[in-house]
Amino acid sequence: MEELKHQIEVEQSRQREWEDFLTRVRQCLGGEAVEWSSGDRVRIEALEKYTVFGDEAQSRIPATEVLTNLDRADTPEAAFALLVDLGLWSEHENLFLRRNQIPTHFSSKVQEVAQRCLHLPSADPDENNRLDLTTLKVYTIDDESTQEIDDGLSVEYLPDGRKRLWIHIADPSRLVFPGDELDLEARRRSTTIYLPTGMVPMFPPELATGPMSLVQGKICPALSFAVILSDIGSVEEYSIHPSIIKPTYRLTYEDVDEMLHLGLQAEPEMTTLAEMARLRQSWRQSQGCINIYMPESVIKVKGDEITIEVLDDSKARQMVAEMMILAGEVGGRYGQSQNIPLPFRGQTQPELPPEEELLQLQPGPVRACAIRRCMPRSEISTSPTRHASLALGVYTQVTSPIRRYSDLLAHFQIKAHLRGDPLPFTAVELQEVLMSITTTVKEASLVERQTNRYWALEYLRRHSGEVWQALMLRWLKEDENLGLILLEELGMEMAWRLPRAVRLGDRLEVQVSYSDPRRDQINFQEMLPAAGSASAS
């Protein structure tokens, strides 16, 4: 009898909780402020999982019970709408992040470690070996919105008339050690994710944008790559040093383009950097590098405003890219010569279309698109291998240790060898770590693409009355008239079933007839300027 009485009481309590939850939901939907209980959170999480995973969600039944009792449809879309109506989610909630279960916040334990690093940093293992380069003029060059400043450039004029390039890379490994709390968290995340609404960092922001970054006017630890180029642009001499630097100028790409255009005599180092970059690019071209430039758009969302900027292939961007590639070659050569396992990047030689076939295509995006289709993916390995499109015999990425975990691994290995310490990772151990982060990096890249496409479609939905210039890039299914077009003013590539026969390189004027970013659907219609009418797609 006691057991039966207990069961009845438990059931009555559960029923009261359920009714109280529904009451709070209806109050919230009516505009009242409510305080959710721990039991409410369980049901809300069930709604969230049903929205994200649909029928595959393990907590589908509790979610559908809530929807049914509120006279709403038993669908993930209805669950999403309810969460928005309750003010728990925004109408633009990023389901791609949630579906891939990417953490957007750091645990309290990681935050505690980050605070200790800020106020009681660990002893720097390279403190007595750092080369003092604070007398060099150091330029950091990034987009205006960049917060993690991880590279800087200098020029040193030698007594014999030669010029030594210095590529300074931020040194987070002085605060992070293999296997510690920050390292394991960075390994779990594997990369910083850049979204239109903001970034999801690999390290806690207070570290990534503070003591880990190369901050203008402050003494900053770095890993500096010194390079002297030959007359034709190949690497003649190089060395790598733990260092301290003092960034002189925090510049944007636009600043540098203007400086190069004006040819400022007060900044001869900048002119030298640009000349060395051109020499370097010319040498790589002589080695068979493959340069592909396609318009690239950057979408930013602030509040309810969406802005789109098409990046130019400017001299400043080309210069910085060449310097970063150069640092990657030097890091790779050092690893190869010293037999250090590193995350080497390689790419097999692509099979490009015959030259006469490429020459028939319109130069610019159409031809670049045809070449891009033939490019094999780059692969990562602990053994050095040739990178075909860069035209380098060996290459490793070392320039973004705050944002890419594989770069941090390279720093761990190189710095240990420079100190004469045992390497943190054997080749086998390094390969295991690389395998563990590869999947995470791919998922993060997918989330970036999906999120950018969502906001691109939302932007086009809001501007459905505008007419866009479209360039026919290539066929996806020519027999079905399905092609890939480039909206030139926006730098966006979109699939479209064209309403008539066109040729590659043809330009059309199009208007959005339908766009639903949540369903990932968009349709266009061609505008016929002569007749002033439109034919539906």
Concise overview:
The chain is α+β, with helices and mostly antiparallel strands and 537 residues long. It has helices spanning 2-29, 38-53, 60-69, 76-85, 95-99, 108-119, 181-189, 205-208, 253-262, 268-286, 315-337, 355-359, 365-373, 405-419, 427-462, and strands spanning 131-132, 139-142, 151-157, 163-170, 193-195, 198-200, 220-229, 235-245, 249-252, 296-302, 305-311, 344-346, 379-381, 467-477, 482-487, 492-497, 507-516, 521-528, 533-536. The protein has a 6-stranded antiparallel β-sheet with strand order 16-15-14-17-18-19. Strands 1-8-7-4-3 form a 5-stranded mixed β-sheet, with helices on one face. It has a two-stranded parallel ribbon with strand order 2-9.
Mind explaining what this structure looks like?
Helix 2 (38-53) crosses helix 4 and helix 10 (268-286) crosses helix 11. This protein has 15 helices and 19 strands. The radius of gyration is 28 Å and the shape is globular. By secondary structure, the protein is an alpha+beta fold. The chain has a six-stranded antiparallel β-sheet with strand order 16-15-14-17-18-19. It has helices at residues 2-29, 38-53, 60-69, 76-85, 95-99, 108-119, 181-189, 205-208, 253-262, 268-286, 315-337, 355-359, 365-373, 405-419, 427-462, and strands at 131-132, 139-142, 151-157, 163-170, 193-195, 198-200, 220-229, 235-245, 249-252, 296-302, 305-311, 344-346, 379-381, 467-477, 482-487, 492-497, 507-516, 521-528, 533-536.
